[in-house]
């Protein structure tokens, strides 16, 4: 590790102002990705601006059909929050599947989606649950937020304040996890709404994506067998030391079927 300055922001406006004043500064949330990158010299920020003590970034509200979670809320708090577990249990269950207890205690919703790791779990929840990313200056639909590998629609100094999730009729998440990192080798989030069914896939490509063939099949018949009957092309999927593209293409409908079965209870 090398020398850097540390600032603790007390409000969103102050955090954004501090970052805008220093092009080499970075926001610090849970630090689960940033600090590791710094240790490897892949990132060398001049200043870390800690946003985890900002009250509005720690808030959770449930209002009708919308669950809004502050960007600095930890994975563990999402998993254990009574109102989230009641209104949107699939989100709480997903948060409880992230990493290990130490990672869940420190990692945050905002940090995860801002980093946009191709194998992260939360991006699948955002796409599946018609989420809106709320920043210090605008609202971004999840469908427009994730652009590519480690790339989002955020401006360099933009700060995520919260994420608003639309509560579905039914939803569930299933993943085939990497046994070492607990990242998703492939993960599938399924959500059924009155007007549409959404299927979001993480861990299988350069960035999270929606599986339109599965969505169409499940919109017609929301049942495990409908998901298992879908065949996906492997052309744009990842091949790495953990699995081939063909294996991931096979795995996605299998996980989707398990998620549907879980959603149906």
From TrEMBL:
Residues 1-170 form the FAD-binding PCMH-type domain. The keyword Flavoprotein applies. PROSITE patterns: FAD_PCMH. InterPro entries: CO_DH_flav_C, CO_DH_flav_C_dom_sf, Diverse_Substr_Oxidored, FAD-bd_PCMH, FAD-bd_PCMH-like_sf, FAD-bd_PCMH_sub1, FAD-bd_PCMH_sub2, Mopterin_DH_FAD-bd. This is Carbon monoxide dehydrogenase. The lineage of its organism: Bacteria, Pseudomonadati, Pseudomonadota, Betaproteobacteria, Burkholderiales. The keyword Flavoprotein applies. Keywords: FAD, Flavoprotein, Oxidoreductase. SMART domains: CO_deh_flav_C. GO terms for molecular function: FAD binding; oxidoreductase activity.
């Amino acid at each position: 590790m090398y020398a850097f300055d540390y600032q603790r922001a007390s409000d969103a406006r102050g955090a954004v102002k501090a970052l805008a004043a220093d092009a080499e500064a970075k926001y610090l949330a849970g630090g689960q990705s940033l600090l590791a990158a710094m240790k490897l010299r892949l990132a060398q920020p001049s200043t870390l601006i800690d946003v985890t003590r900002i009250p509005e970034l720690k808030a959770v509200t449930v209002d009708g059909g919308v669950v809004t979670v502050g960007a600095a809320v930890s994975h563990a708090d999402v998993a254990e929050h009574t109102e989230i577990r009641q209104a949107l249990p699939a989100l709480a269950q997903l948060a409880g599947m992230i990493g290990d207890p130490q990672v869940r205690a420190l990692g945050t919703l905002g940090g995860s989606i801002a980093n946009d790791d191709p194998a992260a779990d939360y991006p699948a929840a955002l796409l599946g649950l018609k989420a809106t990313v709320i920043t210090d200056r605008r609202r971004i639909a999840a469908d427009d937020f994730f652009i590519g590998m480690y790339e989002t629609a955020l401006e360099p100094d933009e700060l995520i304040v919260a994420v608003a999730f639309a509560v579905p009729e039914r939803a569930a998440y299933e993943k085939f996890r990497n046994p070492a990192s607990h990242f998703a080798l492939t993960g599938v989030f399924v959500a059924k709404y009155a007007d549409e069914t959404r299927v979001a896939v993480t861990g299988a490509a350069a960035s999270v994506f929606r599986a339109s063939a599965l969505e169409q099949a499940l919109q017609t018949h929301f049942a495990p067998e409908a998901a298992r009957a879908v065949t996906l092309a492997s052309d744009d999927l990842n091949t790495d030391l953990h699995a081939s593209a063909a294996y991931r293409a096979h795995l996605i409908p299998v996980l989707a079927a398990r998620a549907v079965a879980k959603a149906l209870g």
